[in-house]
Design a protein that fits this description.
single chain; 326 residues
């Protein structure tokens, strides 16, 4: 009993140490980017007000984006609100539970505002002895999904012999509609569809730490997102984020569930501080609430559904002299 208590305390401390490290809110990765090469980092994380249900998230991400304009060639200039471009991206991401990379290609074909962007992203992650077997269908044999879909159950097993070093690869398709306002403000809507492929010994029953939801080894995730960044002074803005995750289902030959469809919604709101011209910085603190769509998948208290999210983002310039626009 004492060992379990010590293990949970140490586990919580490690997460809080990375709580300023899950890029829930990254403004579609385009905040203050320039035409041509771009390098930026994001330290991001969140924690519940009351421990027990929500699994803390913490990540450090380094991203490279090449923005190739489709009209003029204004390399070194910040993106225009109505920019048309191709986008090539590479991200390296690490957290206490997994690490990996993402490769993306896409673009905005039309010179207009609001903008439409489509992207394809390949993701590959390695679980750091952190993949745990989840209950994916509620029945008398397996018990309830709520029994394992919580932070207490996962933290008791991660990094132990009950966990495994596994591999995940995802194939994601992003479709976003974004309206840019003056002084870096924007409103956005998105639909993200991800095909999940996990190699695991747990009969396909795994946990996606990046999206905080149980998944099958062959699954799909539909992510609906709405976000806003509304500046009200030179350095301050209001950041808003609403997101819903939905996974697929799977049935056996007799029609019984191997995996039930799962979903939850999260909403966040808070201030954002921005500074710097050549190397823009942004520090965002948001509070919010999350909930699962089906009550039988949740066994916690209302107080355990409140969250705090902290994120720091910095862009690094390549010293390219801006090309005069025609």
């Amino acid at each position: 009993m004492k060992f379990r208590l010590f293990q949970k305390i140490a586990f919580g401390v490690s997460l809080l140490a990375s709580a300023s490290l899950a890029d829930i809110f990254d403004m579609n990765g385009l905040y203050r980017l320039q035409y041509g090469p771009n390098l930026n980092m994001i330290l991001s994380g969140n924690t519940p007000i009351v421990w027990g249900q929500w699994m803390n998230q913490g990540t450090a991400t380094a991203s490279f984006n090449w923005i190739e304009p489709l009209r003029d060639l204004p390399y070194g200039n910040f993106l225009d609100p109505d920019a048309a471009f191709l986008r090539f991206s590479m991200d390296m991401e690490v957290s206490p539970f997994y690490g990996g990379f993402r490769l993306g290609i896409g673009g905005r074909p039309f010179k207009m505002n609001p903008q439409v962007e489509a992207r394809f992203i390949y993701e590959h992650y390695t679980y750091f002895n952190s993949n745990v077997e989840m209950t994916l269908s509620s029945n008398l044999k397996n018990g309830s999904i709520a029994d394992s879909w919580n932070a207490d159950w996962i933290s008791d097993r991660v990094y132990t012999s009950d966990a495994a070093v596994d591999f995940m690869q995802n194939f994601a398709f992003f479709f976003d509609l974004e309206y840019a306002m003056g002084s870096d403000g924007l409103l956005g809507l998105g639909v993200h569809f991800t095909l999940v492929d996990i190699s695991t010994q747990f009969e396909g029953k795994s946990f996606d730490y990046r999206r905080n939801i149980p998944v099958f080894s062959r699954d799909f995730i539909i992510d609906l997102v709405a976000y806003a960044y509304i500046p009200f002074s030179e350095h301050w803005a209001l950041a808003c984020h609403l997101n819903q995750y939905n996974t697929g289902s799977s049935r056996s030959s007799d029609g019984s569930y191997l995996k039930e469809p799962l979903s939850y919604t999260i909403g966040l709101l808070g201030p954002s501080l921005r500074w710097g011209d050549t190397s823009p910085n942004k520090l965002t603190l948001m509070g919010g609430f999350w909930m699962r769509e089906k009550e039988r998948f949740y066994s916690g208290k209302v107080s355990q559904q409140f969250l705090v999210h902290l994120q720091y983002q910095r862009n690094f310039g390549f010293g390219i002299r801006p090309v005069p626009k025609e």
